[in-house]
Design goal:
heterodimer; A: about 150 residues; alpha/beta; Rossmann fold; four-stranded parallel β-sheet; B: about 300 residues; 2 domains; six-stranded mixed β-sheet; 10 helices; 6 strands; about 30% helix
């Protein structure tokens, strides 16, 4: 109870988290969390995509551009992809993109990658709570928001 | 060396083996070299090769230059570093290996910018790629012009770019961010970096697509950052660090810094060095189930 009231404390900073998730695993996992009536931080905005292979690095840039304080990218575990290999391809892409973001100076506590299957509702809840708390501690992403002006 | 090059060009054109020789020639005042396209064997004497030949001519093999493609089969005068780009173009199906005659030039280094030339090639006017060059004796050719060059690149890459990367790795994210925003601020969105690159050959670049418009096209910081990040990302695992983008940039943005960093990441993660093997697929279009994913929770 006390945790919940902290998360929604009036006047405090509430981070915006964008979650780019795949339709088949992570979205279903989040759905399971919902139907199981698990509670987690309301700061996350979920964008459902067909596959992690569909997640262009531009989506992540756009999310930051539009004012996200943190971005989470999540999909099926390796070997579980509905389209056989989408997540393998995206994993390679992320290796390059993560390095690029780090090199540009984006704090890696604002950009998270994860594998969450359709049955891992608890992992999803924990992850969202952790990411939200971490980004909340960092404060708003003023660096990026400043260049928007 | 030049004589040998001209002789070969003349032979190729006379015998009809190729329709055009793409090479370097003097400008009218003989101060700089510019690309020349020789179709007549009598003009073969216009070809030159010296330390000023820094341009990467492989761009004329891509579909950006349809008028040159229309001339017929080309022969191209290429240094080892230019051949790397040709290799990528071949491995990505942009050029068929049989459809280009590569005249490989033994090279002892070029100047970073032609205007730095004082009549002598010294270490401090050479670009970083020359200090670490593994292909001074060209690696994929139909003929090699010039004598064998004896040069072993240092084990640890040296030069300004790599010193800067090492310095960068010690910086805090905030310092890096300020550095890049400061540089990208100057970007005027002229897309010279894209136009000069032989691997940026898309018919329609992502930045030219406006429905939806992913990258803002005005020279505003927001769009500048997105453009420069995506340009680097699209070249990850492909860029051969030829440095043409940085040379073309009118705002002097250190693009080679980010390109070289990406190349280091790809080499570390996938053991891939671009531009050496045309049978091998670039790392971003293939995968291995055992790829590292320690950063994915």
């Amino acid at each position: 109870m006390s945790e919940k009231s902290q998360a929604t404390a009036p006047g405090g900073f509430e981070p915006k988290i964008t979650a780019l998730v795949c339709n088949w695993c992570t979205y279903a996992g989040a759905d399971l969390a919902g139907t199981s009536r698990m509670e987690y931080r309301p700061n996350v905005r979920i964008v459902k995509l067909p596959c992690t292979g569909r997640i262009d690095p531009l989506f992540i840039i756009k999310a930051f551009e539009k004012g996200a304080d943190g971005v989470l990218v999540s999909g099926c575990h390796p070997g579980d992809c509905h389209y056989t290999a989408g997540n393998y391809h995206s994993r390679r892409r992320w290796v390059g993109f993560k390095g690029l973001m780090e090199f540009t100076g984006i704090d890696m506590r604002r950009l998270h990658f994860s594998w969450i299957s359709a049955s891992e509702a608890i992992k999803w809840v924990d992850l969202i709570n952790n990411v939200t708390d971490e980004v909340k501690a960092l404060g708003p992403f003023t660096d990026y928001q400043q260049i928007n002006e | 060396m030049e004589e040998q090059l001209r002789k070969e060009a003349r032979r190729l054109l006379t015998e009809g083996e190729v329709a055009v020789v793409i090479g370097y020639g003097w400008n009218s005042r003989k101060t700089r070299v510019t690309p020349v396209f020789i179709t007549n064997p009598d003009d073969a004497d216009k070809l030159v090769f010296n330390a000023l030949c820094v341009n990467n001519l492989s761009i004329y093999l891509t579909r950006k230059y349809k008028d040159i493609k229309a001339l017929g089969k080309p022969a191209i005068v290429a240094k080892g570093c230019d051949i790397k780009n040709i290799v990528i173009c071949v491995s990505e199906g942009q050029v068929a290996r049989d459809n280009v005659y590569i005249i490989g030039m033994s090279c002892t280094g070029v100047v970073y910018k032609q205007e730095l030339w004082q009549g002598e090639l010294t270490d401090n006017i050479m670009p970083t790629k020359c200090h670490n060059c593994e292909v001074r004796n060209p690696h994929v050719t139909d003929i090699v012009i010039g004598d064998k060059v004896d040069f072993t690149p240092p084990e640890e890459p040296t030069g300004m770019v790599f010193d800067k990367i090492r310095e960068f790795d010690r910086k805090t994210p905030k310092e890096r961010w300020d550095f890049w925003i400061d540089h990208f601020n100057r970007c005027i969105k002229c897309y010279a970096c894209r136009q000069a690159c032989s691997l940026c050959y898309c018919e329609r670049c992502i930045t030219d697509k406006n429905q939806p418009q992913w990258i803002e096209t005005s020279a505003h910081e927001r769009g500048n950052l997105a453009w420069n990040l995506i340009r680097a990302q699209h070249l990850t695992g492909r860029c051969t660090e030829c440095g043409e983008c940085e040379r073309a940039c009118p705002a002097n943005i250190p693009l080679n810094l980010v390109n070289s960093k990406q190349a280091l990441i790809v080499k570390e993660s996938f053991g891939y060095k671009s531009g050496f093997d045309m049978e091998e697929h670039p790392p971003m279009i293939v995968y291995k189930p055992e790829d590292k994913d320690d950063f994915i929770k």
